[in-house]
Amino acid sequence: MMTEHTRHGDVTVFELGREYDALDVARFEPFAAELLAAAKSIEPPLLVLDFSHTTYIGSSFIETLVRAWKRLNERGGRMALCGVGGFCQDVLRATRLDSLWPICDDRDAAVALLQEPAA
User: Fold this and answer.
1) What is the CATH number of the domain that holds 16?
2) Is residue 87's pLDDT more than 90?
3) What sign results for the dihedral spanned by CA atoms 52, 57, 60, 65?
4) How far is CA 82 from the centre of its chain?
């Protein structure tokens, strides 16, 4: 499984597979296209990315996250992350991207957060 996306009420959840620890461009591009298309079209524009099975993210992945967040933000949407651990958490903290997106312990908490009215 590269990604699996499901709906939880009004929130779209992308669960990232273990394959993200060593993606080459040919395997990464379909994910990037799918995520960016969702960020541009999901209604309402609420997106959770579940990192529970992800052990590594690189610069291309981070760039795609930022682009997806910008698309959601332009539409008044929001994005949250969950299940972020180890190296991925260190990368998000080092790049200060953890200040852009709420990072929740689990999927239920992230979905609940996005279902609350925006502050």
Assistant:
1) 3.30.750.24
2) no
3) positive
4) 8
- Could you list the residue range(s) of the whole structural domain that residue 62 is in? 3-100
Half-sphere exposure of 114 (CA within 13 A, CB side): 31
Determine, yes or no, domain membership for 9.
yes
Of 68, 117, 57, nearest to 92 by C-alpha is 57
**Which residues does 8 contact at the CB level (< 8 Å), separation at least 6?**
48, 107, 111
Residue 116 belongs to some domain of the structure: no
Contact between 59 and 87 (Cβ < 8 Å): no
* Total tally of structural domains belonging to the chain: 1
> What is the rounded distance in angstroms from the CA atom of residue 79 to the CA atom of residue 15?
13
Domain membership of residue 118 (yes or no) is no
Residue range 17-67, pLDDT digits in tens: 776 655 456 667 788 899 999 999 999 999 999 988 888 777 888 888 999
Asked if residues 101 and 79 have their Cβ atoms less than 8 Å apart, the reply is: yes
What does the alpha-carbon distance between residue 37 and residue 95 come to, in Å, rounded to a whole number?
25
